[in-house]
Amino acid sequence: MTTTIWTELAGLDFRVTTVDAAGVPTRSLQAGTGEPVIFLHGTSGHLEAFARNLGAHAHRYACHALDMLGHGYTGRPDFPYEIPRYRDHLLAYMDAAGIESAHIVGESLGGWVGARTAIDAPGRVASLQLLCAGGTVANPKIMERIRTTTRQAVTADDVDLTRRRLRLLMADPKDATEELVAVRHTIYHLPDFAANLDNLLCLQDMETRLRNILRPEDLAGITVPTLIVWGRDNPFGEVPEAAAMHEAVVGSELVLFDACGHWPQHEQAVRYNALSLAFLAKHPISG
Q: Which of 62, 80, 115 is nearest to 209 (CA)?
């Protein structure tokens, strides 16, 4: 039987809505009640990255999966998307949604944004999950791979280029389902997506990246409970990168997933969901 986003969300009361976040229309999938958990995807991604996680979490938490600034079906203001811009957009969304403090789950770029927010606005972040989080190194080869593969997939109307871009994230190519490929290909070919691509990819420019990078002394400023999850086959960062992050964030937990690439929450959803829910239960906002 083929599992789809619809079957992953089957039986779950949810809504997909647009929230005005300080003037930026922001697509959000919302489900469940309880303490808020906000899910943030990676570069050129979209909220469907968390389709395998929302059902499990919404039984206990108020889930908000976002299309981040300039991504998916969220607005695309015309300026480079550096990390403080993403942070401010996240906080504006929280203000608009009436969320004072939330658990932040960030994958790749989303982890970078979540970490920066926890450093700059610790009162707004109750706990932090960094899933193959970016932002602590500047590897020219990886940056070029992200920039080139994304640009090729966006500028050429060839669905196989989108398929290759998604498969790059996964240890097992089958996890880049044809449904996810279709969702991303459609987004990549929205009329204004290509026009905005330089803004979206600005962090793959070395000078810009170094201006935004999270150094050990920055990570040491994270004081909220933090869980780091990393795939041993992550194509965008090896295990020593995760170990250094774990060492810098005092009191953090590090869990490594075997046979896993850059999307642990998707590739090993059952294991990740159990791990995340146990972590969240240990660190309630009320506590």
A: 80
Q: In whole angstroms, how far apart are CA 212 and each of 45, 79, 112, 147, 203?
A: 20, 15, 9, 17, 8
Contact 89, 68 (CB under 8 A): yes
In a domain, 59, yes or no: yes
Q: What is the pLDDT along the chain (287 residues), one digit of tens a residue?
A: 677 999 999 999 999 999 999 999 999 999 999 999 999 999 999 999 999 999 999 999 999 999 999 999 999 999 999 999 999 999 999 999 999 999 999 999 999 999 999 999 999 999 999 999 999 999 999 999 999 999 999 999 999 999 999 999 999 999 999 999 999 999 999 999 999 999 999 999 999 999 999 999 999 999 999 999 999 999 999 999 999 999 999 999 999 999 999 999 999 999 999 999 999 999 999 75
pTM confidence score: 0.98
287 is a domain residue:
no
Give the CATH number, domain containing residue 57.
Answer: 3.40.50.1820
Domain membership of residue 177 (yes or no) is yes
Instruction: Work out how many domains the chain is built from and give that number.
Output: 1
User: Tokens 């050429």 map to which residue?
Assistant: 156
User: Which range marks the domain in which residue 236 is found?
Assistant: 5-282
Which residues pair with residue 130 across a beta bridge?
106, 228
List Cβ<8 Å contacts ≥24 apart for 173-176: 175/261, 175/263, 175/266, 175/267
- Report d(CA 66, CA 19) in Å as an integer: 10
